[in-house]
Q: What sequence folds into this?
């Protein structure tokens, strides 16, 4: 009976495709789903003729597995994971390995790994990116948890992960919830990438008057250069797809209300918690929230009507400038995500190697991009880099792009086209570049009304002023 190398619990598409990926790489897989009908259907269809065995109960699943058992949970994040663990534990023994491959919140993973390790089980939390296709053909894998569990699974994970230049997109991301943390930040960066590309589309369309076919060709051309990435590639493709009903570009028929599942919001909340600025990622989350207020937008649009923009247009725009603006804004957005990881690494003791994080994001996942090769190199050359934009080659790239970037945003403002993420990135860059920010006034105001005290630029110590008494 004990013939299977791993068990997979949860046969929604991600679970099914991972099971197929693992089997294709030479492992025998046992599968289980709460609703047994789904297991039967999977075995009869996608998994027929494969080294995949079904179990109708968790007891059966446990009995099918070689010891120590290895069980990958692919169930809905949240309570379902706790329920599955509780139901499964009576059938496991000390030393067995449990892996959560869902999109769990990292604090849940921290809690579960502590609880399970205390009972003698080995726990791994593993972020998985790449969507359905990635799960089947090779995802980016972000595991963390018990080091012995990682060692026991390393071969399997390397086999099923995406490969870039012969390297598997998987690395050990420390103890506890580090893997799910990295996945959370990956999703925050993904939000920002998508928003930046969407704003760029708006500028190509409303700013420069390009049609869908021209936009498709523009993104396809950009995909040959520094912006080369999965999201730019699929964007070029999307603009080439016609609506079967009307023949018009399908994307133009889609309701402009963006949904979110929460991982982008988690990144925002976490950054606020740690006090790390990620304005581009925040703008992307808020842009989705704004898009969802469609009824209000329609009312405001009706109320204001067309505004006269005479005299407001200050900068001409061209496609090449837009390409540079998108690139520069993207660099700043990745810099923000990396800064958040750097701080979390310190605060939570994850000890992330940021060059490794960049390396495993180069393939399989949604944010895979040529840029990540350069980010990897930057952190290899200087693992303690305070901020990505300080790397000499990124410094040069931003210096080269900044005029085009400013022109782009000036044009957008002049035309009344919202570019919250492109401009948040520029404000981030300009803020970091500012030797002196106006925060001195904020400190004065805080001291004025709340006696919060301040420090001086020319003397050591803490100061408080009776501002009203000192009025001249
Ligand atoms: P189901 O097919 O029985 O609904 C994604 O929703 C996957 O998580 C599905 O395989 C689903 O099983 C599983 N899932 C969701 N909640 C669960 C729970 N409380 N216990 C076990 N599996 C669950």
A:
């Amino acid at each position: 009976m004990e013939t299977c190398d791993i068990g997979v619990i949860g046969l929604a598409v991600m679970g099914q495709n991972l099971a197929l990926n693992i089997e294709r790489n030479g492992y025998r897989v046992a599968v289980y789903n709460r609703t047994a009908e789904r297991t039967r259907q999977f075995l009869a269809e996608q998994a027929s003729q494969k080294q995949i065995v079904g179990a109708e109960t968790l007891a059966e699943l446990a009995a099918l597995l070689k010891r120590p058992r290895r069980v990958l949970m692919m169930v809905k994040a949240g309570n379902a994971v706790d329920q599955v663990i509780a139901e499964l534990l009576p059938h496991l023994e000390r030393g067995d390995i449990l892996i959560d491959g869902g999109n769990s919140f990292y604090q849940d993973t921290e809690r579960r790994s502590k609880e399970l390790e205390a009972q003698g089980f080995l726990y791994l939390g593993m972020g998985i990116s790449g969507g359905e296709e990635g799960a089947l053909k090779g995802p980016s894998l972000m595991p963390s948890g018990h080091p012995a569990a990682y060692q026991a699974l390393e071969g399997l994970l390397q086999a099923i992960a995406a490969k870039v230049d012969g390297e598997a997109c998987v690395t050990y991301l420390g103890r506890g919830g580090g893997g799910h943390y990295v996945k959370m930040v990956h999703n925050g960066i993904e939000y920002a990438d998508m928003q930046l590309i969407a704003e760029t589309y708006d500028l190509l369309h409303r700013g420069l008057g390009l049609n869908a076919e021209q936009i498709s060709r523009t993104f396809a051309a950009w995909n040959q250069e520094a912006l080369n990435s999965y999201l730019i590639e699929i964007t070029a493709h999307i603009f080439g797809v016609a609506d079967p009903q009307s023949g018009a570009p399908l994307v133009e028929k889609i309701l402009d209300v963006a949904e979110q599942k929460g991982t982008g919001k988690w990144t925002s909340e976490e950054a606020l918690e740690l006090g790390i600025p990620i304005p581009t990622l925040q703008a992307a989350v808020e842009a989705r929230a704004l898009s969802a207020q469609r009824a209000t937008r329609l009312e405001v649009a009706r109320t204001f009507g067309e505004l006269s923009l005479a005299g407001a247009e200050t900068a001409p725009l061209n496609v090449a400038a837009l390409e540079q603006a998108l690139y520069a804004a993207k660099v700043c957005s990745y810099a923000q995500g990396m800064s958040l990881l750097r701080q979390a690494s310190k605060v939570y003791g994850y000890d992330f190697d940021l060059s490794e994080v960049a390396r495993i994001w180069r393939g399989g996942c949604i944010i895979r991009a040529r840029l990540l090769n350069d980010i990897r190199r930057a952190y290899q050359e200087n693992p303690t880099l305070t901020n990505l934009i300080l790397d000499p080659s990124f410094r040069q790239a931003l210096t080269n792009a900044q005029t085009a970037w400013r022109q782009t945003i000036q044009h957008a403002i002049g035309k009344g086209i919202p570019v919250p993420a492109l401009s948040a990135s520029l404000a981030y860059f300009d803020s970091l570049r500012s030797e002196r920010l106006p925060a001195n006034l904020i400190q004065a105001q805080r001291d004025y009304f709340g006696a919060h005290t301040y420090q001086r630029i020319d003397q050591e110590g803490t100061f408080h002023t009776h501002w009203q008494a000192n009025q001249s």
